[in-house]
Structure formats: C-alpha cells, structure tokens
Amino acid sequence: MKLILTIVRDDDANEVMDALTDHGFYVTRLASTGGFLRMGNTVLLSGVEDDRVDQMLQIIQAHTQIHVQPPAPNQKEVQVSRAVVFVLELERLAKL
Ligand code: 2BA
Question: What atom in ligand 1 is closest to the CA of residue 84?
C-alpha cells in the first residue's frame, strides 16, 4: 500500500476530490501554503493499494490545470504544476 500526498491548487481541489471519490479513492484534504508563492494550496492525503496508484495519478492529471503566476508585481512568471505528488510506502493503515 502507498501513502500519496498530492499538492494541488485550491482552484482545482474540489474537482479532483470529486473525481477521486467517484472512483472509490479515500481522500483527506489539508489546507496548506506554498513556500515560494506564499499562496494557499491544498494537500490531499490518500491511502491507496499499489495497483491503483497509476489510476489515481491519471485522474489527478485529468482534473487539474497548469497555471502561470507572477510571484509579485514586476517579477518573472513561474509555472505551477497541475499537481506535485509524493508516493510513499505505507507500512500499515489501521481504522480503529
Ligand atoms: P510554491 O512553493 O508556492 O511554488 C510555486 C511555484 O513556484 C512552483 O511550482 C515553481 O514553479 C516555483 N518555485 C517554487 N520554489 C521555487 C524556487 N526555490 N525557485 C524558483 N521557483 C520556485 P511547483 O513546482 O509546481 O510547486 C507547486 C507547489 O507544490 C509549491 O508551491 C509547494 O507548495 C509544493 N512543492 C513543490 N515542490 C515541492 C517539494 N519538492 N517539496 C515540498 N513541496 C513542494
């Protein structure tokens, strides 16, 4: 099993969550802030079976947008990814 941490833009978070839950994934949403732009973003926390990780990444990709954002007035624009995804080994998931 894997623990997947997905960082998405706040604007995309609802659509991604709807798509993931529609496909039977479990998702926990955490409010977060990017260190560079200092804008709000969203972390989605999911425990996922190994054989469903690729499906989850495809859903995330299909329901997010690439975004261009100037860090501050008169500064060069940066491209914010559709999503930044960390896939970690999950030793155990317990529901008590
Ligand atoms: P932010 O830290 O606000 O970064 C927003 C965008 O600014 C980044 O998009 C990247 O294009 C640019 N950027 C970030 N740090 C930079 C730097 N030191 N120098 C130049 N440009 C920089 P993404 O790479 O798509 O990242 C989107 C958000 O995902 C980030 O928001 C941060 O919250 C998170 N993130 C990305 N990479 C991460 C990592 N390695 N570890 C932890 N969080 C990460």
Answer: 29
Which of 45, 66, 78 gets mutated to test ligand 1 (max ligand atoms within 8 A of its CB)?
78
Domain ranges of the chain: 2-89
Tens digit of each residue's pLDDT, the chain (96 residues): 999 999 999 999 999 999 999 999 999 999 999 999 999 999 999 999 999 999 999 999 999 999 998 888 888 899 999 999 999 999 999 999
Distance 85 CA to ligand 1 centre (A): 12
Select from 43, 53, 54, 52 the least CA-distant residue to 17.
43
Q: How far apart are CA 5 and CA 8, in angstroms?
A: 10
What is the reported pTM?
0.94
- Considering the domain 2-89 in this protein, what is its CATH number? 3.30.70.120
